[in-house]
Amino acid sequence: MATIRVDVKDAMGRTTTKLLDEKQTRAVLCQKCGSEVFLTGMKLKRVSKILVGSPNDLFVNLPVVYCAKCQFVIQDDRPRNESNNGDKLKVLK
After folding, report:
1. What is the pLDDT of residues 77-91, one digit of tens each?
2. Residue 79: other Cβ atoms inside 10 A
3. What HEC string does 11-41 produce?
4. Residue 43: count of CB within 10 angstroms of its CB
């Protein structure tokens, strides 16, 4: 099995490197189809020029992780007032 390097920050902001055996981990499965293969993508959000005080609207890149099989977006870090509506990213081949 593979060794996985994990950098962990404690409450004081110090980083500690831990080496884990892959057997000590659990697979993350897609909530929709059960696949354990994921890809990274990018969502774009537009921010109003009025809000940021610039002459033009701004675009903000938001990294996302999505299922390679069904394109379901994993959204664990989303604020609790937003629901996961099963957003799908269109994958261009």
Report:
1. 545 444 445 455 444
2. 6
3. CCCCEEEEEEEHHHCCCCCCCCCCCCCEEEE
4. 13
